[in-house]
Structures are given as structure tokens and as C-alpha cells.
Design goal:
With about 375 residues, the protein is an alpha+beta fold. It contains 13 helices and 13 strands. A hairpin with a 2-residue loop joins strand 10 and strand 11. The longest helix has 22 residues, at about 345-365.
């Protein structure tokens, strides 16, 4: 007779030991994205967890790992108007983890989701789960299960993730369908640039060049945004340390796609992305404004789309953000949600009132705030 074993992991070394089992389970799940890999989340835990405590739920059947709830417990944070501890999903914050989810072996959701929701319910925490995909069946089942146990649940739209569907596409067919002037406009801009400069568009291949190329990307990103209110993508040492660590791991695993555009040996643009499970993730980019007349940012994206097609990617994911340039490239978009769960207790009701007040306060702040402030407010949500 099969036996289920549920276990809460609160020790970093126990988390470390899960690496191979975690990734094997992830590959057999419906949420196999870069941001749910053990490597991304363990690196997040090392550099960006702040004062959180680990609360990873594992469920096994006859010793085999079948499900993971990758949670943490965040202590009270008066800066965010949250005067109580909450349970959050790992990867939360302005690092930009998208498609966060519980991990359950595909086909076993009906068997194991009740055990997950029961275990989460017993912890008696309010839960905030951000950046989860609206179409996620696993997360819908989790919300329904917790609601059935008496929790009050709610959701709100968080952002869109534009993407390019590359299946059965060529560069020519994609450009013809998506861009009004098609491939000719791109080629014209590229020829102009090549006529005036010696152009190299190089992918980072060696560990010896990774650190410097990442620093170049960060500098170009800051130059890109300094005149537009700034960016919080790399605005702390902890974030920069995270990317130094993870980019090295990604290069080792052949996930890293860090490109630098050189014009006469001067860095003009850069794209920092990843290639995982047949998807190219466009994570961050930057360019030197002195070359903006040549559309170097536009050309850099196009060249990485070409590279993704060469690698037989099925998708080019532009990730969260509704910037005009992303929508111009995208063929579709996914919606991410923030989920809120409150236990059926006096504490749960108090938590719900506080979070409703915080939400309303943010709405009032951002109603008249500049875009740069609005982005920072929502990045910390």
C-alpha cells in the first residue's frame, strides 16, 4: 500500500540537498520554467531572502518526491504596512521571478493537492503568492482547496508577460507578420550600422569573460534608464551579487544568453537572457544613449530573436512589463496574478483588513506618481 510523507524543510543544507530531486520533479511538472529551477530559487535564497525563514513543504509517495510547495515565512515589515508574518512563495521581490508556482508531478495533481493545501492550512499564516500565471491549473486547485477549508481567498491582476510564439516560424515569416515594414526595415537599420561601424554581436561563452560582460550589461542598462527615472533592476549589492552567482551557474548549465553589441570595440548595447526548456527568456537589456539614433536596442532584440530561432526555441518570452517596445515584438501575452489567502481566524481577518488598506494606499500613491516611482512600488509588492 502506498504511503504519503509530508515534511517541512527549514534548514538551508536540507534545501541544498534537494537539488537533483527538485529538478527532476520540475521537469515532469507543468511549471517547468527557469524561475522554478532549484538553481534560481537557491541563489535567491542565498542573496535575496533577507529575514525570511525557509518553509519548504515536500510530499513523497513511497520515498519518491511528488510535490513541493517552495514557501518562506516573512516576518513583520512595517515599511510595507504588514505588521504580521506572512507566508510567501520563493523568488518574490524585484528580482523579477515570473510564473511562480507550487510544483506537482504532472498527472498527480488530484492526488497530492489536498495534502498540500491541508499542510499549508495547518500553518495558519496569511499567504501572498505573487507572479503566478492566471492559467495555472495547480494554483487554481490550491486556491479552491484552501477556500474549501474555510480560508478567504482573493486575486488581483499583477502584470502581463508579452511573448513571441516561434513555433513553425522563420525570421522572415515572423517579421512579415509582426512588423508593418517587416524584415526590410530591420535589414536597412543593420546595414546602416555596419556601414558606419565595425559591428560585433557576441554571446558570452567563457567564464573568464562572464563577469566583465555582466558588468557591461549593468552599466548599459543604467545608462539606458538614468534619464528616465532610473531602474531598480540592479539597484542593490544583493541583486548584483545574485546575478553574479546565477549567471555563473547559468553559463555552466548552458542557460546563459548574455550578448554584447560592440561598435568599433565600444559596447553599445547588451541583452541579458537565458535559454531553458526551449524558451528564450529576455531578462534585461541596455544600450548607450549616444547610439540611440541607430536603434541599437531594437537591433539587439532582433538579433537575439534570430539566435533563438537558430536554437529551435519554441518561444521568446519578454517577461513582465507592458513597455511599448515589448508589445511591438510580442505576438501574445500571459497574465500574472497575485493571490491572497487568509485563514479563518481573528488573525486572518486582521491580516485581510491590513492588506486591503495597503492595497488602497498604493493605489492612491501611484495614481499621480511618475512612472519610475510606480515601478518601484509595484516591484516591491
Amino acid at each position: 500500500m502506498s504511503t504519503f510523507e509530508s515534511k517541512w524543510i527549514s534548514d538551508t543544507e536540507d534545501f541544498r540537498a534537494l537539488q537533483h530531486e527538485w529538478n527532476e520533479l520540475l521537469r515532469s511538472s507543468t511549471c517547468n520554467t527557469l524561475f522554478m529551477t532549484w538553481e534560481w530559487l537557491f541563489t535567491w535564497w542565498q542573496h535575496l531572502a533577507e529575514r525570511r525563514k525557509l518553509a519548504i513543504l515536500t510530499i513523497r509517495q513511497d520515498g519518491r518526491l511528488m510535490a513541493i510547495a517552495p514557501m518562506t515565512i516573512k516576518p513583520p515589515d512595517l515599511r510595507r504596512m504588514v505588521p504580521f508574518s506572512v507566508m510567501e512563495i520563493m523568488g518574490t521581490g524585484n528580482v523579477g521571478s515570473d510564473y511562480l508556482s507550487l510544483i506537482v508531478r504532472n498527472g498527480a495533481e488530484t492526488s497530492f493537492m489536498p495534502a498540500i493545501t491541508a499542510a499549508l492550512f495547518k500553518r495558519n499564516y496569511a499567504m501572498e503568492i505573487s507572479a503566478t500565471e492566471r492559467s495555472s491549473r495547480v494554483m487554481a486547485m490550491a486556491m479552491l482547496g484552501l477556500n474549501d477549508l474555510g480560508c478567504r481567498t482573493g486575486q488581483q491582476a499583477q502584470c502581463l508577460c508579452p511573448y513571441i510564439d516561434l513555433r513553425e516560424q522563420t525570421w522572415e515569416s515572423y517579421m512579415k507578420k509582426t512588423h508593418q515594414s517587416g524584415k526590410s526595415r530591420f535589414d536597412k537599420k543593420l546595414r546602416r550600422l555596419e556601414k558606419e561601424y565595425s559591428l560585433r554581436f557576441e554571446q558570452t561563452q567563457l567564464e573568464s569573460e562572464r563577469g566583465q560582460n555582466l558588468a557591461t550589461l549593468i552599466e548599459l542598462h543604467l545608462q539606458r534608464w538614468n534619464g528616465k527615472g532610473g531602474s531598480n533592476a540592479f539597484d542593490s549589492q544583493a541583486l548584483r551579487d545574485f546575478h553574479q552567482t546565477f549567471s555563473a551557474i547559468a553559463l555552466h548549465n548552458n542557460w546563459l544568453r548574455l550578448f554584447i553589441m560592440w561598435l568599433d570595440d565600444k559596447p553599445a548595447a547588451a541583452v541579458y537572457g537565458f535559454f531553458y526548456n526551449h524558451v528564450f527568456y529576455y531578462y534585461q537589456a541596455g544600450f548607450d544613449p549616444q547610439f540611440s539614433q541607430y536603434s541599437v536596442g531594437y537591433l539587439a532584440i532582433g538579433l537575439t530573436v534570430q539566435n533563438a530561432l537558430i536554437e529551435d526555441a519554441i518561444e521568446y518570452d519578454l517577461l513582465r512589463g507592458e513597455e511599448e517596445y515589448k508589445n511591438a515584438w510580442a505576438t501574445s501575452a500571459r497574465e500574472l496574478l497575485r493571490l491572497n489567502i487568509f485563514p479563518p481566524t481573528a488573525k486572518g481577518r486582521l491580516c485581510q483588513r491590513y492588506l486591503a488598506l495597503r492595497k488602497r494606499t498604493k493605489e492612491l500613491i501611484v495614481e499621480h506618481a511618475p512612472d519610475s516611482i510606480r515601478e518601484r512600488v509595484f516591484a516591491q509588492a
